[in-house]
Amino acid sequence: MRSSGSGPRTQAISGRFVEDFGPGGPTFADGLQRYAESTVPVLGNGCGIASPAAGISDLPPLTVVYGGGGPFGVAYGFGVADALLSGGLPLRDIDALGTSSGAWVASCMAAGVTHEVLCALPPIRVPNPLPGWIRRTANNVFGDVHSERVRVSAIQLPTLRRQILSGGRFPLADLVAASSSMPGLFPPSPVGQWLYVDGAVRSLTSADHAPAARNLLVIAPLAGPMFGAAGRAMERLLTRETHRWTKATGGAVHLVRPNTAISRLARHPLDLFDSHKARMVYPMAYEQGAQLLRTRPALASLGRTALAA
């Protein structure tokens, strides 16, 4: 849908999403699984993966996917990423794909924005019907910065098709706003001439559209023990996505997801938007990331491999 207006079609689409994803709604898990397993067409627009013509040894050593999860997901993704950065993984200098809150983390990494900067922002109020609120907030953080290393997933209106949008073509502020505009919580956000809503409506990671590389690091805030049935649905989708990515590229996948202690901080979908809990998540996620470097030699070696490339 062109961004010049929002007619009845937009309202109907948003209402359809609210039915499944509305705050506190009893169909949260069922809705997530329904959309996760849907067959909505994908428009790759040149930013998705493709089967590499050259051998895997010619691919970049590492790429990263940051999944969605509200401010909780931002804190989790940032905590893990900062720990891995400290351990030598050059996450600020590699290609990244972000979805929803993961778009914020991917863009912050590329733009050199720290977690402290995001913590200083006013708390998010949901639902927030004010048009452009997310976009203005993102613009305050990123300005007009572009980065070819960043891609985000967002859903185009009214087609409901997933688009993988490039930070080389559009400002990061526009991309993170579009990828974070969850229907029922925030209005659609424009990128170019089109309106978009949260990429998590289609997939919380879109890992199957990560850039080709020898290794794919997936940081998935809502996988594993999160939200019971919803978390299991997310993990099933993520498994299918990473299998497709591996089949197309021949690369290896390294998955990072919350441990049980972290998952206990978010027992209800609205907990994902609790700024106090998000602040609690960051140090726990940082410690988990640091522990992974100690216990997963293959993960720790990615930093040396990437730096040597």
Automatic annotation (TrEMBL):
The keyword Plastid does not apply. Keywords: Hydrolase, Lipid degradation, Lipid metabolism. The active site is at S100, D198. A motif (DGA/G) lies at residues 198-200. GO terms for molecular function: hydrolase activity. A motif (GXSXG) lies at residues 98-102. Residues 65-213 form the PNPLA domain. One of its GO terms (biological process) is lipid catabolic process. It comes from the Bacteria. This is PNPLA domain-containing protein.
